[in-house]
Amino acid sequence: MPFCLPTLADLQTLIIPSPPQLSLEDSLQEAIAAISGGDCGCVVISQPEGFGLLNAEDVVRLLAQGQDTRQPLATLDISPAPTLKLSDWQDIDQIGQYFLTEGVRHLLIVDDRGNLEGVISQDKWLSLLTPHGDIKKNLEPFFTLTLNLLCIADVQGRFIRLNPAWETTLGYQTKDLEGQILLDFVHPEDRAATLAAIEQLKGQEKVEGFLNRYRRADGGYVYLEWYAQPYGSFLYAVAQDITQQKEIEETLKKREAHLQTAQRIAHLGSWEFEVATGKITWSDQVFRLLGRDIALGMPSYEEVLQIYHPEDQIVHDRVVTEAIATGKPYDLECRVCHEDGPYTYIQARGEPIMDAKGQVTALVGTILDITDRKTHEADLLRVSQQLAASNQELEAFAYSVSHDLRAPLRAIDGFSQALLEDYGQLFDDIAQDYFDRIRFNISRMSNLIDDLLSLSRVSRSELKPQWVNLSALAANLSQDLQIQEPQRRVEFIIAPDLKVTADPTLMAIVLTNLLENAWKFTSHHPSARIELGVMPGETTPVYFVRDDGAGFDMQYAKMLFGVFQRLHNTAEFPGTGIGLATVQRIIRRHGGKIWAEGAIEQGATFYFTIP
């Protein structure tokens, strides 16, 4: 860009009046502070003969020589300052000669008697030679206000100038840092790498993306990312505080580690497929599940298909193609081929990712190892088939009981009845008693057969759940019992609106057995009380049937629900010992529980739940 000669009016704007002045008794540290706090970038030193001058470059040179900042300026080699009298001010060419030819950084302006009037800097002069104006004035706000850490250091690693961002980031005042060795603030573990970076800069090589940790004023550390460029005897660098970024990276690493662990434990892997490029990305667990060596890298789509059983390759390809075309998710099971073993089973799920136009750009999903589940399903199928065969045998047995056993019983009953009718007058009392016992046991055997058939049907019948009003059902049963034995004094207490979702036929069997048991075991008392209710305050309703009859010993409570298990003899309380076993089986088929509490001659309570 071409130079433009300044005018005298322009030159008048360049003079900085009253520049900072120090005496030879003042220290180098005071000179550094004066330069940093002033506008002209230098300090004037009053000497016996004229003026001396120190600028930032002079300070850098002195510090590089190892000069103590506390020593007085009189002990230092301070060059005489170039001066220009006001009477010569109009000689624009002479001023240009100083700045452009001799490379002077600052020029002192004095009056005819040698008194200091002001100072003009090379930067100010050069700013007049271009249409960009005052370069330093434009750059200084950038240096001061930028959020990045800007640094000028010498090749010995000593801070020369720092911007205010250092105060914000590290908590130190810049005046406390300038002149200090930067390694003193670097984390011990990072010093060797930092020294290597400085050596690289000394060799006139730039440094990019270098990371190290700097100590804060509060003792903590921040991560800085450096970009540095050597220029002559100085190092110019910019750094960015990436502590938050590093913390986020560490958090992401931990989450990734947790995710990998969770996927390994759950036998679950994640994947992504980019439609446009065909690029596939697997988590480590997918490599393990599909038996591919992670060193081989990510597979192509064709390689993925080859992993599956030949019959499943066609299905997998069709499902993926449909998902890309329709944008619908998919869920399928495939068999995985392994060189060193049998097939394993996986469940592959995929979800389409669409762009703003509704086009599928990618598929993401999971791979789940379901080999154990498939094995259990096969075992369950085998058990189910065995159970079905057992049920068929049970049905055949039930048919045999119903027909083959009843026929002999009917014959015994019929012939014994014929004997009594035809020859009864020939039998004495003992013989008559024998025949009565025969007929009683025939009846009892018939009841046993009926109860066994009922128990068998309870286990095999299909559940048809619907709303069942237990209160109404119990009310009808209590009326039937009172009609059968109207002479008994029994009080029924039935809680209103007790409703469950259950099979109505089976629930009728439950209440019939429980209420008939309560009726039977209170029969030896002159008056009785039978109650149907629900326990208060329970999350899952707990229903109960309670009586104040014969009760039972709690040490035998587990025997109550066993087939043919009885706690009382048949002479005292008749029965087959199958009723409560039937009740328990019905309650369990509904997913509920049943249990009992009681005491001898203090009654019994049967509790049950229907979820």
Describe the structure.
The protein has 611 residues and is an alpha+beta fold. 42% of the residues lie in helices and 24% in strands. The model is unreliable at 1-5 and 130-136 (pLDDT under 50).
What's the helix and strand layout?
Blueprint: H1 8-12, E1 16-17, E2 21-23, H2 28-37, E3 42-46, E4 51-55, H3 56-64, E5 83-85, H4 92-101, E6 106-110, E7 116-121, H5 122-128, H6 135-145, E8 149-154, E9 159-162, H7 165-170, H8 174-177, H9 191-202, E10 207-215, E11 221-231, E12 234-241, H10 243-266, E13 268-274, E14 280-282, H11 284-290, H12 301-307, H13 310-326, E15 330-338, E16 341-354, E17 360-369, H14 371-423, H15 429-460, E18 466-469, H16 470-484, E19 489-494, E20 499-502, H17 504-521, E21 527-534, E22 543-547, H18 579-589, E23 594-598, E24 604-608
Parallel strand pairs: 2-3, 5-6, 19-21
Antiparallel strand pairs: 1-7, 3-4, 6-7, 8-9, 8-12, 10-11, 11-12, 13-14, 13-17, 15-16, 16-17, 18-20, 21-22, 22-24, 23-24
Helix pairs in contact: 14-15, 15-18, 16-17, 17-18
Number of helices: 18
Q: What's the gyration radius in Å?
A: 51 Å
Cα end-to-end separation: 90 Å
Q: Describe the main β-sheet briefly.
A: 5 strands, antiparallel
- Kindly state the mean pLDDT as a whole number? 84
How does the helix and strand content classify structurally?
A: alpha+beta
| Fraction in helix | 40-55%
Q: So what's the oligomer here?
A: single chain
Strand line-up in the sheet with most strands: 9-8-12-11-10
Low-confidence spans: pLDDT under 50, at least 5 residues?
Answer: 1-5, 130-136
Shape: elongated
